[in-house]
Structures are given as C-alpha cells and as structure tokens.
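Let us work through a complete example step by step.
Step 1: write down the sequence.
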Amino acid sequence: HAPCIELHPVNQRVQVHVDGKLIADSIQALELRETGYPPRHYIPHEDVRMDLLTTSETTTSCPFKGHTVYFSLGDNKDIAWSYEQPIEGMGAIAGMVAFTGEGAKAHMLYG
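Step 2: predict the structure and record it as tokens.
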C-alpha cells in the first residue's frame, strides 16, 4: 500500500553546504516525511545556487511523487533532485530541490 507522506513547513532557516560551500539558503523550505525514509528538506529553486548544479543523466520515477530529475555538483553526482511536475496531491514540492545526506550537509538555523 502507499506510504504515508506528509509535508510540513519548516519554521527555521535551512542552509545546505557542500564541501564547505553554501549551496542553498531558505526560509521557505518544506520537510517531507515519508514512511521508511529519513525526513527531507525541499527548498525552492530560487533559494538554491542552481548555477552551480548541472542536470544529471539519472532519472527515476516515484509512484507517489512523480518523475525525478537529478542534479550534480562537480564530483558529487546526483547530490540533489527535484520533482518538476509531481503527481496530483504533491504539487507543493513542484520545482523544489532536495539534497542527499551524502556530501550535502543541511543545517537549520534558529532565530
């Protein structure tokens, strides 16, 4: 059966660093909680250094969220992904970017 997927606004500033470089900085992130997976922060494109990311050849499809586009940063392959046109019910994450836990360090800043 379908996993439970919940979206929650993040009430703190979220920053993502890769190799010590600030790649994303947002106060508009959403946290996606999906059964069986760690929580992921989805960050609007405009808050991500998209100029530093390159579209990967990797693509996947999730039956619960839709077609996935991946991004790389230098030698960090497939370090981020996005659902450009998610399936019905997941529209809130359209055009938002999530980062893997490998290589990308996300920090929440309080205050």
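Step 3: interpret the result. Strands lie at 5-9, 13-18, 21-26, 30-34, 40-44, 54-62, 66-73, 76-82, 96-99, 104-109.
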